[in-house]
Design brief:
It is built from 14 helices and 8 strands. By secondary structure, it is mostly helical. The chain has a 3-stranded antiparallel beta sheet, with helices on one face. Helix 2 runs antiparallel to helix 3. The relative contact order is 0.08.
Length: 372
């Protein structure tokens, strides 16, 4: 068991253990503001010591340490997409830290690593790698494997990313795209209906794919978002992003075409010998989910007919949210409709909020003037 005491520099932990040779040793750490903070570091460190014998042995290769850390704390604990990101990061470490021991990584070397990435990658991509590699190195620091947090005050730079304004289209352009989707539409053209629903609700594509017949309440004119469809990996249901479930109100026109489409789909199900086991609304004539590519191809085709720059379906989500904000819908309501936090919405749609701020300057002055 670790022991704790308060000294001049703050709280200190002391862990007594025997190394690989049987010799008694102690591992200490100090400078913590509270006993609780000291425990947060000492307790996982004590587990590591019991598991590995001598945690102070920092001769391990960084590639080996990352591999063990990833499979202990990250891999298979979240989504397949998260697994992919951590595996990609592992390849990056193999490339940029070949044969390098954990103890030999300095703050200068780590910053050089980030600087090298910044020359060919967008800033946001560099930040994502920094978050993953840095988390591993900070774990090594907090568990006493290395004496210095080499990621401390690291600077992240990179090439400019895609302009936020390029992720959505104007209201007039959206109307043209919607018109292109609706013109001569047939009920068997499922991709178009999926795009219309995404436009009307701001749902993610995986959430649209996962809609089942019991998710729609035509009397209340609502749709339940309580799952998503993993179209990249498992081809099955998964939880929504962030685990946020919500109910979305539908407009009258969406309810009208959605009701007709549901009737059509139910008839097609009865006529098809293949069972729709997931009970999905949006399927083809063989009761198979519509692919991401098919949906995006349908949107690109509509954009060309509407003389609008080609988009992916996610741009419809961005456009939906942007228009709600520009028309004065409260940011909290927009966040709830999207299944995001207010913080995320504020960050992603900062350009819209800036425009709203400029629009409201005179209104704010007018209200203040009326008071006085």
């Amino acid at each position: 068991m670790a022991s704790y005491r308060k000294i001049k520099t703050g709280w200190q932990y002391i862990i007594s253990y025997k190394d690989d040779t049987g010799k008694k040793r102690q591992k200490t750490g100090s400078g913590y503001r509270t006993k609780s903070e000291a425990k947060q570091v000492a307790e996982p460190l004590e587990i590591e010591i019991k598991k590995n014998g001598n945690i102070t042995n920092n001769d391990v290769l960084f590639t080996d340490y990352y591999h063990r850390w990833m499979h202990t704390y990250k891999y298979d604990l979240f989504s397949e997409e998260t697994n992919r990101i951590y595996l990609t990061t592992e390849k990056l470490i193999t490339e940029y830290f070949p044969g390098m021991k954990l103890k030999d990584i300095s703050m200068d070397y780590y910053q050089t690593f980030l600087n090298t990435l910044s020359k060919k990658l967008a800033k946001e991509t560099v930040r994502k790698y920094h978050n993953k590699v840095g988390a591993c190195l900070r774990h090594a620091f907090h568990t006493g494997v290395i004496p210095v947090d080499v990621t401390y005050k690291a600077t992240v730079t990179g090439k400019p990313g895609k302009n936020a304004r390029d992720k959505f289209i104007s209201e007039a352009e959206l109307k043209n795209v919607v018109l292109a989707l609706k013109t001569n539409i047939k009920e068997s053209w499922t991709s178009r209906y999926m795009l219309l629903l995404q436009t009307a609700t701001g749902m993610r594509l995986g959430e649209v794919m996962a809609i089942t017949f019991d998710d729609i309440d035509f009397k209340k004119e609502t749709i339940q978002i309580n799952k998503s469809w993993d179209y990249k990996y498992s081809k099955n249901f998964k939880n929504t992003k962030n685990g946020i479930h919500r109910t979305i109100d539908l407009d009258k026109e969406t309810i009208q075409w959605l009701r007709k489409y549901v009737v059509f789909q139910k008839k097609r199900m009865l006529a098809c010998p293949i069972k729709n086991h997931p009970n999905l609304i949006f399927t083809d004539d063989k009761m198979q989910p519509i692919s991401e590519k098919a949906v995006n191809d349908a949107l690109k085709s509509a954009c060309r007919r509407a003389n609008v720059k080609e988009l992916t379906s996610h741009a419809l989500r961005h456009t939906h949210a942007s228009l709600l904000l520009l028309h004065g819908v409260d940011i909290q309501i927009v966040a709830e409709r999207l299944g995001d936090s207010v913080e995320v919405v504020s960050k992603v749609y900062a350009h819209v909020l800036d425009e709203m701020r400029d629009r409201n300057k005179e209104k704010i002055k007018s209200i203040a003037a009326s008071i006085f």
